[in-house]
Backbone:
């Protein structure tokens, strides 16, 4: 039954369905093309209260609107309604709106895209890749027709100049005083109002002074305070005299020939105390610059006599020292020119050193350069004519070098610098006034101009403008070059009465600032500004459409912005062409707005200001779509549809911000019969699926619950506690859930959801769903935390640093406390930084208390995330201490007690064999410094010795030196110093550093002498006396200095009255004194204590004179005698002093060998014969010997007068090749012996104990390096002659040994005869020779760190070698090798001589010391030195040694 009913239903549907379809296909509909008043165009007038008029759409009831739209536009001449909105159904959602940011008023644009009425734009032509940036944009509807437009554009440069009141400025120079690569100006006023100190307070007076005009990005143009300079200064110059890259200022007073130098303090930016220098009076003119290219600016001057001088300042002497001087001579003459003036500039361009034009009164000039190769001045041989006084320098041809313009009585002369091609001058008839003029490309158009100031007619009133600056161009033509135009190209009015033009780039933007001296009456100063050229390019074709040029400021200092004006309406006409094709953006209402940007141009750095935007336009706007849920006008109208029949009026509701008019026109509406089926959808029910620190997920019912006409879901979000904002949906989705990632922990949000269906139908808004976003777990750890004292500070500061932590950290918190801690939950801190900062210098702990030096602090740091969360558990580091790192002054008090116990006030006397006691106290502000090391430095002319002493707990230290000679070889003669120094201390974590200190005391090294006369001193009956007093040095080493000793003597009678006086000098250790005397008087000998070169106690000795003779009354005879003591002839001959030069000889004879000159000095008071012999004369001549033509005889032939000297020349003789010698210093021992020479046959020499004395020494020279030789390593066939080689070598060795023995015995015999007393000296000489082994060029391919037994060494083929290391001089078995170090000696000869000496020693000591067995043991090549160390040398020349107790041998390395 059911089945039959279903089949019947299908049958009916097959016939009925086509009929229904046909009925729907024939449904009625239509279009509407007029508004409700029957018109297709209406002008609407609105006011700010809103307008709900009768005009709208008149619809048929029970219809469905399929499309609806109309147009709206501004009226051409009516007022703008401002922002305009259309709300058809008055539900608060606009169906069309013209109110977005930057849209401005409807039909009237007055704001920029930002919505602001003013905007600004910075421009810097030298920075970045955009040299012509875009202006802030403003919106114009696409295709708009613009009726009028206006825009105010002003330019204010970064260096905002203007007028600066300074007083009258007399001179200007420029330079870089602060090393910022920009120009600063030094301004000199001879009448500056400077502050001076008076007893009643500061007062002001007029004096020559200067100040600096400078610019910085932070402070703009600044003027320094006045700095006084030379009293009569008329010029100011800027130059770097000390090479610190900071220019200095020099005031110049030519009338006094005085330079006042003010060095720049590179730390403070101020100036050091003034240094006054008086220059030579013959200077005509001068300037400063780096003439020589050495980094220092020298003084370049022209002087009388045609001289040009270069002088460099010396910081040590505060004077100028001459580097070179050149004289300019007249062409073809030896007469010097007369110089009158000069020009000094970088004529070859700024990349080259400056040069000088030295001019004569005729205008003829010579260019002067510096030659770096020869370090000398070069005067060009070519002259340049016509450079008259008043000439100016500048680059008028644009080739980067400097040219000259010179005035002429009938015009001017342009002198072009052609570089290598020389100078080329051209005379012109235009008469110019070049006083204080400048050549400058002021507008950066690559064409130079001559700027000439004209003071006008000052009336004393600065308010009445007078004068100007005229610009003249340079031009060249068919028969003229570089002529200054007779007509001005521009006239500028910077300020009243300009009188000088200077220029320089003060801000580094490439544009040149002009500094002009201006003013009149009581207002004088400077005007500073660059010349600016600005403009904008509307169509962006690279060409400026609207422009302006001139001086500019920011409104301060009397100089306003430079305004760009558009008198021709370029903006209006260009925009009408551009707007149809400009890129645009469309909003939710379909409104298309194009952004207009102007391309801005400027030659200088600064800021554009945009204001006064005023654009009137008309444009067509279509009302159709909208961004709200309804989507378009059709849906809104359908939502208003009702059932039934008849008409339905739906009026338009417009809202505006201003009273105005607009036009609506061309409505188009299509509809079909039948109203839409509009049912209320279900309300979404929300729930949270997931709430995390970075996301929120919400869901609601399945989409099937919302019907087939569902379009999507709209999600709204607002902060918790706020109402829903239906105008701004948060999201839209087709799913039944949404995921929000735009959340932050700690935020609270409320969500709503609404479903959207066809015809703009929406469900009710869901109930709100609110949540708070949770915080993530904090990651607070900060690695690498360190804390330390801030170095080089005055204490109370710590430097804390750490490394960045987790990227979630946004803040760092530091905790610094005087106790250790582990948790900061209860702590607050004032020490915080942002996440980018990883170090902090603190002066307070985390509680806000100042840090105390020496207190232990503990430090911890944590990171706080963006939500303010952080861990509180910490591990503090410490302890750390702050410290005052400034050094404390220290004082050392010292007293010296010399061997005289302070006999000579103010001077410490020192003697070589005497001691010195030192007592010192080191303290800081009276508190002793313990455990400090003090260094006593004893210094003489060529000697310095240091002795250390350590302070005790109270800072005291004492030192006692028994004898100065215990310090080492010391002369202790003449002026000396005693310096006790403390090096200072770096301190430690809790103690401040201490400065070093020292105390220097003058001392004098003296010769201790004894004066011994034969007392009583005889007196002759006639009252005359003469005596010889023996003078000896207590220190025999210093006996030679007695020859310079002089004394004063006085004779007194028994009553103390002086009878005679005089002076005497020591000759041959004797002092001859003679004069008038009386019996029973005394002779007083006095040594000078200024200086105290010689010392006896009290510097004086008194000796008794002979008593009166006794008369025998019985016989009438007396015991008086007439014997007179004759001067005593010396008993000992003093040895001569020998001073020899040195020489260097090539390895092979090249004909350049030179003689060695020796000076022999006779210290005796009598003449001597001199002879020279060699200490060693080998049988076989060595490669080198020396001969003297003046000493050819066997006996002495030369004579030296008393206390005189002679020179002897020794010429080298090459006896063979240099083989066997080693390169380096060589020597041959000599003996110079002098013998007393009889004078007048008195036979004084025969009475001497020692009539002969000798001096030993060594004639030294240097042998050059052995030339590299190529060795032929081709094998040689063995022949019979080779077999004889060992035999010949053996015979040669035997002969050499015999010859050496004979030579040694012969020399020893001569020594025994001539130099009996010199045996000890010979032994000392041998020991010294052995202590300095000859260098060897032998390569030693042996492991010096190896250790082997002697058997191993011998097994390896090692055998004894003849070279000996240091330390074997006293070894009996190798001591004979000393002769190996003498010139020409051989080891074999030395060994023979050693045998003789050993035998002699054995004979002398045999009775006292029996020989030990080891002394006669067989010699196996092992030697033992004085320290008990065994030595053995292998065949490769390597020495091996073994200390006592060692089993193996070790290689010895020098």
Residues:
């Amino acid at each position: 039954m059911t089945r039959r009913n279903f089949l019947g239903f299908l049958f009916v549907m097959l016939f009925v369905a086509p009929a229904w379809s046909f009925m729907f296909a024939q449904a009625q509909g239509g279009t509407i093309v007029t508004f409700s008043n029957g018109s297709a165009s209406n002008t609407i007038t609105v006011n700010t209260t809103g307008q709900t008029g009768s005009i709208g759409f008149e619809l048929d009831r029970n219809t469905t609107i399929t499309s609806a739209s109309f147009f709206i536009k501004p009226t051409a001449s009516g007022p703008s309604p401002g922002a305009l909105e259309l709300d058809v159904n008055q539900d608060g959602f606009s169906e069309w709106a013209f109110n977005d940011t930057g849209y401005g008023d409807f039909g009237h644009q007055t704001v920029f895209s930002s919505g602001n009425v003013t905007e600004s734009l910075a421009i810097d032509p030298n920075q970045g890749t955009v040299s012509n940036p875009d202006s802030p944009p403003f919106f114009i509807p696409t295709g708009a027709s613009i009726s009028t437009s206006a825009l105010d554009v002003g330019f204010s440069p970064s260096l905002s100049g203007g007028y600066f009141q300074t007083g009258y400025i007399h001179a200007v120079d420029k330079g870089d005083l602060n090393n910022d690569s920009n120009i600063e100006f030094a301004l000199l006023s001879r009448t500056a109002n400077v502050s001076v100190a008076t007893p009643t307070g500061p007062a002001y007076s007029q004096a020559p002074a200067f100040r600096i005009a400078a610019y910085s990005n932070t402070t703009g143009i600044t003027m320094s305070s006045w700095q006084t300079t030379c009293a009569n200064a008329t010029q100011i110059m800027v130059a770097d005299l000390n090479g610190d890259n900071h220019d200095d200022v020099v005031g110049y007073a030519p009338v006094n020939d005085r330079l006042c130098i003010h060095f720049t303090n590179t730390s403070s930016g101020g100036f050091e105390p003034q240094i006054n220098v008086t220059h030579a009076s013959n200077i005509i003119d001068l300037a400063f610059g780096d003439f020589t290219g050495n980094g220092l600016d020298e003084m370049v001057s022209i002087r009388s006599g045609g001289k040009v001088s270069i002088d460099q300042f010396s910081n040590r002497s505060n004077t100028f020292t001459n580097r070179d001087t050149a004289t300019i001579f007249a062409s073809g003459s030896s007469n010097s020119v007369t110089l009158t003036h000069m020009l000094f500039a970088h004529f070859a361009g700024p990349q080259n050193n400056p040069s000088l034009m030295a001019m004569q009164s005729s205008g003829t000039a010579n260019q002067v350069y510096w030659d770096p190769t020869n370090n000398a001045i070069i005067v060009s041989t070519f002259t340049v004519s016509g450079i008259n006084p008043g000439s100016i320098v500048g680059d008028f041809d644009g080739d980067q070098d400097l040219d000259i313009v010179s005035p002429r009585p009938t015009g001017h002369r342009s002198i072009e610098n052609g570089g290598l091609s020389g100078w080329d001058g051209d005379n012109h008839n235009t008469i110019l006034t070049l006083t204080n003029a400048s050549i400058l490309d002021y507008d950066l158009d690559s064409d130079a101009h001559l700027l000439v100031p004209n003071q006008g007619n000052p009336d004393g009133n600065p308010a009445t403008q007078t004068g100007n600056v005229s610009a003249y161009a340079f031009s060249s033509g068919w028969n003229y070059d570089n002529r200054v135009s007779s007509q001005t190209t521009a006239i500028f009015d910077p300020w009243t009465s300009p009188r000088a033009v200077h220029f320089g780039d003060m801000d580094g933007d490439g544009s040149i600032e002009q500094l002009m001296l201006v003013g009149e009456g009581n207002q004088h100063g400077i005007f500073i500004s660059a010349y600016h050229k600005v403009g904008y390019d509307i169509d962006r074709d690279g060409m400026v459409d609207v422009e302006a040029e001139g001086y500019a400021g920011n409104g301060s200092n009397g100089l306003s912005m430079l305004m760009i004006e558009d008198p021709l309406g370029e903006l209006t006409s260009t925009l009408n062409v551009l707007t149809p094709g400009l890129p645009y953006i469309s909003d939710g209402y379909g409104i298309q707005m194009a952004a207009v940007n102007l391309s801005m141009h400027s030659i200088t750095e600064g800021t554009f200001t945009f204001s006064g935007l005023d654009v009137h336009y008309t444009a067509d706007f279509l009302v159709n779509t909208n961004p709200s849920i309804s989507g378009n006008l059709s849906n809104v109208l359908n939502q208003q549809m009702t059932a039934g029949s008849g008409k339905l009026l739906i009026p338009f509701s417009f809202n505006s911000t201003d009273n105005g008019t607009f036009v609506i026109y061309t409505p188009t509406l299509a509809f079909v019969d039948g109203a839409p089926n509009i049912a209320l959808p279900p309300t979404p029910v929300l729930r949270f699926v997931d709430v995390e620190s970075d996301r929120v997920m919400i869901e609601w019912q399945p989409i099937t619950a919302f019907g087939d006409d569902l379009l999507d879901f709209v999600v709204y979000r607002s902060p918790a506690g706020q109402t829903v904002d239906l105008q701004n949906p948060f999201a839209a989705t087709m799913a039944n859930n949404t995921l929000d990632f735009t959340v932050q922990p700690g935020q609270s949000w409320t969500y709503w959801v609404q479903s959207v269906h066809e015809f703009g139908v929406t469900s009710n808004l869901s109930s709100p769903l609110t949540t708070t976003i949770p915080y993530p777990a904090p990651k607070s750890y900060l690695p690498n935390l360190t804390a330390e004292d801030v170095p080089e500070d005055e204490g109370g500061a710590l430097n804390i640093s750490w490394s960045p932590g987790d990227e979630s950290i946004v803040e760092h918190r530091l905790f610094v406390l005087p106790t250790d801690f582990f948790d900061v939950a209860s702590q607050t801190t004032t020490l915080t930084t942002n996440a980018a900062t990883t170090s902090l210098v603190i002066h307070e702990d985390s509680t806000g208390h100042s840090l105390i030096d020496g207190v232990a602090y503990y430090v911890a740091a944590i990171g706080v995330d963006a939500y303010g969360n952080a861990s509180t558990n910490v591990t503090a580091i410490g302890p750390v201490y702050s410290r005052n790192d400034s050094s404390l002054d220290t004082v050392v008090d010292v007293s010296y007690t010399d061997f005289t116990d302070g006999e000579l006030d103010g001077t410490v006397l020192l003697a070589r064999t005497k001691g010195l006691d030192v007592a010192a106290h080191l303290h800081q502000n009276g508190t002793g410094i313990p455990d400090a090391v003090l260094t006593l430095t004893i210094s003489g002319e060529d000697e310095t010795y240091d002795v250390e002493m350590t302070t005790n707990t109270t800072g005291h230290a004492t030192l006692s030196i028994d004898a100065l000679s215990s310090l080492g070889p010391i002369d202790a003669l003449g002026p000396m110093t005693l310096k006790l120094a403390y090096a200072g201390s770096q301190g430690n974590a809790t103690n401040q550093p201490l400065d070093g200190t020292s105390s220097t005391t003058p001392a004098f090294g003296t010769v201790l002498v004894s004066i011994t006369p034969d007392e009583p001193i005889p007196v002759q009956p006639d009252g005359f006396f003469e005596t010889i007093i023996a003078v000896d040095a207590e220190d025999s080493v210093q006996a030679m200095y007695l020859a310079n000793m002089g004394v004063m003597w006085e004779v007194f009678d028994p009553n103390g009255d002086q009878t005679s006086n005089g002076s005497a000098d020591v000759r041959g250790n004797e002092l001859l004194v003679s004069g008038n005397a009386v019996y029973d008087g005394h002779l007083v000998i006095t040594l000078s204590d200024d200086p105290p070169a010689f010392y006896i106690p009290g510097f004086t000795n008194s000796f008794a004179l002979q008593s009166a003779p006794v008369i025998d009354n019985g016989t009438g005879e007396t015991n008086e005698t007439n014997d007179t003591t004759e001067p005593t002839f010396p008993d000992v001959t003093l040895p001569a002093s020998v001073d020899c030069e040195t020489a260097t000889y090539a390895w092979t004879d090249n004909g350049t060998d030179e003689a060695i000159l020796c000076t022999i000095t006779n210290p005796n008071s009598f003449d001597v014969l001199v002879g020279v012999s060699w200490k060693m004369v080998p049988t076989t001549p060595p490669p080198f010997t020396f001969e003297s033509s003046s000493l050819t005889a066997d006996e002495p032939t030369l004579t030296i007068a008393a206390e005189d000297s002679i020179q002897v020349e020794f010429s080298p003789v090459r006896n063979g090749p240099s083989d066997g010698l080693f390169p380096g210093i060589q020597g041959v021992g000599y003996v110079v012996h002098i013998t007393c020479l009889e004078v007048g046959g008195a036979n004084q020499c025969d009475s001497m104990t020692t009539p002969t004395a000798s001096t030993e020494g060594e004639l030294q020279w240097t042998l050059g390096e052995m030339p590299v030789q190529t060795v032929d390593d081709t094998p040689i066939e063995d022949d019979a002659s080779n077999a004889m080689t060992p035999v010949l070598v053996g015979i040669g060795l035997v002969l050499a040994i015999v010859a050496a023995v004979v030579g040694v015995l012969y020399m020893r015999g001569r020594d025994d005869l001539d130099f009996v007393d010199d045996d000890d000296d010979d032994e000392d000489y041998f020991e010294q020779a052995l202590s300095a082994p000859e260098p060897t060029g032998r390569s030693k391919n042996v492991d010096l760190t190896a250790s082997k037994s002697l058997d191993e060494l011998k097994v390896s083929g090692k055998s004894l070698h003849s070279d000996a290391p240091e330390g074997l001089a006293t070894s009996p078995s190798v001591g004979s090798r000393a002769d190996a170090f003498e010139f020409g000696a051989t080891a074999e000869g030395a060994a023979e001589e050693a045998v003789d000496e050993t035998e002699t020693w054995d004979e002398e000591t045999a009775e006292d010391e029996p020989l030990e067995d080891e002394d006669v043991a067989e010699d196996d090549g092992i030697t033992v030195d004085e320290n008990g160390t065994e030595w053995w040398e292998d065949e490769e020349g390597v020495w091996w040694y073994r200390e006592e107790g060692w089993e193996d041998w070790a290689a010895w390395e020098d």
User: Anything to note?
Assistant: The CA atoms of residues 796 and 852 lie 6 Å apart. The mean pLDDT is 84. The two ends are 133 Å apart (CA to CA). The chain is about 10% helix and 40% strand.
